[in-house]
Amino acid sequence: MAGLTDLSRSRLEDEAMEFGIFNLMGAREADKPTAQVFGEVAEQTRLADELGYAIAWFAEHHFSNYCLCASPLMMVAHCASITRRIRLGTAVVVLPLYNPARLAAEIATADALSNGRLMLGIGAGYQPYEFERFGADIAQNLEMTEEFCDILDLAFSQDFFSYPGKHYRMPDTHIPARPVQSPLPIYVAGHTQAMFRTAARHGYRVLSSGRVGGAALLADQYADIVAAFAAEDAPLSQAHITVNRFAHITDSREEGMRFAENARYQTRLASSLRRRQEIMQGTVLVDVPFPDEPPLETIYDNLLIGDVDTVAEKLVAEIHATRPVHVCFSFKVGNTPPKAAMRSMELMIGEVKPKVEKALGAP
Question: Which H or E run contains 147?
């Protein structure tokens, strides 16, 4: 741990650092059954609950093996029944792909079924491949998301509401299912000023990711968040910054490099879908290099990969860079074995977290 305590002389936050887990639920192996993918995620979530993780996050994507989960709210409802304390988050519900009245009721239902443990992550979407198949115009996604946020604010704060928008019009409407939480914690996911400003305008939180970058990229994102909240004259503390990071704890460099390759694979798929340059071989997406892709060694160095001391040191640097309140980790990436992912989960909260808290001056 040489140099770790030098990275911080005082606490960065008044509240304890939260750790969580994130699951994309992809299937790198084409023949892996869907039930097995979801079963492994449920097992991870049960373990996270037992270990004391704060939140388990579930992704949403459609029409490819990049992600098999079409409804993170269904995962929330299922995992609420097999856990006791852990909060359950959507990362994210892609708003422009939904009907607002239907989604508002399903959100309230998920929060009620989990007895107030829902953490609602929302996003505008970034994959043209998905939007085309839903008959939605991705060029309008930011406008649609802004209107959708207006509707969610009204639906959960009033008994009756109406909305005369450009993309959504609703007559006087009552959503009978009500969330347990008031207000419901809502996070806006993204990497852009536009999405950060949406969060600031609505009083929402921020959920971001450094992808395969390191502390320098996270510092740039933090500057964008600061600027966005300042532009909206919103307090930065409202952002409750949440960061998602790839993480794998191992003493084996060979195993660590395999995890880095899996992280690169997942990032390649996301990049090709974002750029509308996806290549399918049968039902499987091909992982093609993305623009300015760093060497695999650099990805290994950037990510939270290594032994306990190395990961703790890297994580403290990242916390300095982006001042998060919550960090969630992608442990099960690509074809990483489930047992290896769960071992990393145990080491992260059992051994890394105490070292990070000591370095940050946590009580």
Answer: helix 141-155
